[in-house]
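Form 12-C: Joint structure prediction
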Amino acid sequence: MFDDIKRFETGSPQQLDWFRQLLDGFLPDGNAADIRAVPRGSFPMINVARSDDTVRVYVFAAGLAPSDLTIDVQDNVLTLRGKREPVMGSNEDGSARPIFRRERASGEFVRAIALPDGLDAERAEARHSHGVFEIVLPKREELKPRRIDVQAA
Amino acid sequence: MNNVVRSSNRSPLQQRGDEQRQQETETLLPAVDIIEEPNALKLVADMPGVTHETLKVELDNNVLSLEGEIALNMPEGLSALHAEVRGQRFARRFNLSHEVDGDAITASIVNGVLTLTLPKKDSHRARRIEVQAA
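Section 2 - Result
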């Protein structure tokens, strides 16, 4: 479903702009120019989706138990706070173990994201499964789509 | 011991075509930590949304490959507003050295974090050598 966004972004809009394509070839990290890009290694990653009556936020936070993530909503800003413990890199006697790679984020984190208007934070719910948190924010009643019947004259 | 595990999936930049770039956006590279323990290597990979059922760990000819589908159950009729995770699957491959005992690898996945223990072969374990008095 999140492929929808990608579809708009792939495929160069200026087919004839060979110079830009040449530059892209030299700077292969296409995400750098993307307004929605997040710095590499941001933790946790967030996807937001909308349906007719809810906005759903998916937080990809591997390794966090439900109690490790604090979720706050205030003034349409969703704030996620938490802490992830690094993998132990030392022996019982305190000497450091060799670490060959350390790519996973660890330590405390805070991320905030603006939500669309018109959500009812009172009725928000959150679920957790396999390292992904799903936050469901229902839209306020008056903002839900409604059909208007045309009356015969 | 430094080249025990080498990542093999970084392709040379000049060979990247459009097709390959497309592939990259769909398959995500999980972040990993690799730590040496006295008798084993420990590999920890972040694969949020991957379950025990959708995870595949394979060892072929000293190439260890990790693959996992992101299994989210999302209702129908959603449209994306913002997407940082743009892909449905994680995949990454590693070349293992001959020091790893391929038959004894164990794996577990908890809360989307895959932990692999790669035991060293007996001949490569750390051992203490007693110094005898002359």
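Section 3 - Comments
Strands of chain A lie at 45-50, 54-60, 69-74, 77-84, 99-102, 107-114, 125-129, 132-138. Chain A touches chain B through 52 residues (CB under 8 Å).
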